[in-house]
Specification:
Layout (H helix, E strand, L loop, with lengths): L1 H14 L2 H17 L1 H4 L2 E7 L2 E6 L2 H22 L6 E6 L2 H16 L6 H11 L5 H23 L3 E2 L6 E2 L7 H21 L5 H5 L7 H24 L8 H12 L8 H8 L1 H8 L3
Parallel strand pairs: 2-3
Antiparallel strand pairs: 1-2, 4-5
Helix pairs in contact: 1-7, 2-4, 5-7, 6-7, 8-10, 10-11, 10-13, 11-12, 12-13
Length: 285
């Protein structure tokens, strides 16, 4: 049996199916691993490229689960026997709607959804090169199960993500993973522009970055201010002569005041930094 399992793993790898099969297994194991208390407040949405996406019904539980994420990840991987889960991401979500969707899928599944002759033929064609008949049977069974899950989701109203084709809940245009990638791209573009032109307002930047909203702009700007202020304070407190580039100081001031370079004066810089920090960094400038 151990030899067969290894051969199945090799075959699934060749077909590019092993990772997805393990991810389905992780999602199935979520409830048994985390326990009754957590499943009342958190449910798995999807797993993609080692990232497990979980919707949580309250911000307090998001914070609680974030602290426990490493432990949960380890327990899931130990149960599976492989390091399948690389990261767990928690997001506020309406668990009632998710439960209804799962119930709809469950009702569809209870009808024992059968694959069509054409669908079965395609699966047979995928596994026909596998020499060992027992392994071929196991792999075909796994592919059929995955196909049935996809069809059940479709019949329950799920649709394909407009970017990657993954099955997602109704009324959503993209999956959580693609949404995160899109968000990260917007953040990088915003950060780049603010680093080059730190005085720009949201209205000015949004005219150059399609899809940007004020929350993203405010978050990126706030993070940059905090990062630069930390560098400035560290340099001011340093006893070994640690320096910070003047450009970084000016960028910090422009982010805080939204003033362009030609409007900056020594007085504005001193006022923004505070006399104590400014005196340590700039001295008699």
């Amino acid at each position: 049996m151990e030899k067969i399992n290894k051969l199945v793993d090799v075959t699934l790898n060749k077909l590019g199916l092993k990772t997805r099969a393990l991810e389905y297994k992780v999602m199935e194991l979520w409830e048994s691993v985390v326990g009754e208390m957590i499943i009342k407040h958190a449910s798995v949405v999807e797993m993609h490229r080692g990232v497990l996406f979980v919707h949580v019904d309250h911000p307090v539980w998001i914070q609680h689960l974030s602290f426990a994420a490493q432990d949960i990840k380890n327990r899931l991987n130990e149960t599976i026997g492989e390091k399948v889960v690389k990261e767990i991401r928690f997001k506020a979500g309406n668990r009632c709607n998710e439960q209804k969707i799962k119930q709809d899928i469950g009702k569809t599944a209870s009808r024992k959804r059968a694959l069509s002759f054409e669908e079965l033929e395609k699966i047979e064609a995928m596994v026909k090169e596998i020499g060992d008949p027992e392994i071929r049977k196991v792999v075909a069974s796994l592919i059929r199960q995955g196909k049935i899950i996809t069809l059940e989701k479709q019949e329950a109203g799920w649709i394909e993500c407009s970017l990657c084709g993954m099955m997602i809940e109704p009324k959503k245009k993209k999956c959580f993973y693609c949404g995160l990638k899109e968000l990260e791209l917007l953040r990088r573009k915003t950060r780049f522009l603010l680093w080059e032109l730190p005085w720009l307002s949201y209205q000015e930047i949004s005219s150059h970055i399609s899809g940007l909203n004020k929350d993203i702009y405010d978050t990126v700007r706030r993070e940059m201010i905090q990062e630069l202020w930390l560098q400035i304070r560290t340099a001011a407190k340093s006893r070994n002569g640690q320096k910070i580039p003047n450009a970084h100081v000016q960028t910090y001031v422009m982010l805080r005041t939204r003033m362009s370079p030609e409007k900056l004066t020594p007085e504005i810089i001193w006022q923004t930094l505070g006399e104590n920090i400014a005196n340590k960094l700039l001295g008699g400038q």
